[in-house]
Specification:
Blueprint lengths: L8 H11 L5 H7 L1 H15 L2 E2 L1 H4 L11 H10 L5 H14 L3 E9 L1 E11 L7 E4 L11 E2 L9 E3 L2 E8 L2 E6 L14 E2 L2 E8 L10 H8 L18 E4 L6 E4 L2 E5 L5 E5 L3 H12 L5 H15 L5
Antiparallel strand pairs: 1-11, 2-3, 2-10, 3-4, 4-5, 6-7, 7-8, 8-10, 9-10, 11-12, 12-13, 13-14
Length: 307
């Protein structure tokens, strides 16, 4: 399905300019494509939440990979989703604008459970940029892969990060601001930097190549028989970066980025209604019933009693 068209060029332009506020898309596609990519990926993270509400709100036995039509609806409506939703839509939008793009598989704690986009021949023939709007950590730029071993160090929002080429893979590394080590059974460090993910260097334009992997990501199976490929079958998570500043709900915690670029953590009170109140305040685009069902399913599966 390499020729699948989720967005026409006109739809992509309208979405970027009217919904996300990206300016002069057609002009910059020719005159300055790299900064256009920067603005597109940043605007997605600012306006559309990374979250697992649509997954968590469904009874475990009914969970499944979203269709391409559902992906488009989730992005256009602004409700967002996980990486498969956000970065597949990103790929289709960039393709509609005429960029040469492919998608690549990534390992985040588990094999092939994340997806990102490579854009080729952006500024010149042969260059490659990594674009990731659906990681949950901020990446407010298209990352040039025109480096020999390591990229420059970047700081976006609360996280310090860089990229490394190693064993024909692309590694994303985190240092200051990182909290992913809490989720890793055996975190891997390189000179004080945690390996946040490992990506393939090559990609594909055929979305069907990812179907089997994301059937496993989205389908609920007993972790006793087969480990989950993602923590989002077990966690309640919403992440967004309005004005490039982090707002995160992670289970019972609300994390807000302060003016110094650090996360302040608040333990939400009031049980389920306290969580729902925070969702309404900080993520008003999430439908009330979806959020309520997500909290209910989360409680049933993983918490023995309300807090």
């Amino acid at each position: 399905m390499a020729n699948y068209e989720m967005f026409t060029k006109e739809e992509a332009l309208k979405f970027l300019e009217s919904r996300l506020g990206v300016k002069d898309v057609q002009k910059r596609r020719i005159s300055n494509p790299q900064t256009l990519l920067d603005d597109i990926t940043t605007s997605i993270q600012a306006h559309i939440p990374f979250n697992n509400m649509s997954l968590m709100s469904i009874a475990p036995e009914k969970r499944r990979r979203p269709t391409l039509e559902e992906i488009k609806e989730s992005v256009v409506s602004g409700t967002g989703g996980l990486c498969y939703v956000l970065n597949v839509a990103l790929f289709c939008i960039l393709k509609a604008l005429g960029f040469d793009v492919v998608m690549a598989s990534v390992n985040v704690f588990f094999p092939r459970n994340h997806i990102l986009v490579y854009a080729r021949d952006v500024n010149k023939e042969g260059d490659v940029f990594l674009i990731d709007s659906g990681f949950g950590y901020p990446t407010f730029r298209a990352i040039s892969l025109d480096f020999e071993k390591e990229s420059p160090e970047f700081t976006d929002s609360f996280i310090e990060y860089k990229y490394m080429k190693k064993d024909k893979k692309i590694l994303r590394l985190h240092r200051n601001g990182d909290f992913g080590q809490r989720s890793a059974a055996r975190p891997v460090y390189i000179d004080g930097w945690r390996v946040a993910y490992v990506a393939r260097c090559y990609g594909t334009a055929n979305i069907e190549d990812f179907y089997l992997d994301y059937d496993e990501v989205y389908t609920f199976q007993s972790p006793i028989r087969k480990p989950f490929k993602t923590s989002f079958q077990t966690n309640f998570r919403l992440v967004q970066f309005p004005e490039k500043r982090a707002v995160i709900i992670s289970n019972l915690k609300l994390m807000l980025e302060n003016e110094s670029g650090n996360l302040e953590t608040i333990l939400m009170e009031g049980g389920d209604e306290g969580i729902l109140s925070a969702v309404r305040r900080y993520f008003p685009v999430i439908p009330e019933e979806m959020a309520r069902q997500a909290v209910s399913q989360w409680r049933k599966l993983y918490l023995s009693k309300p807090e």
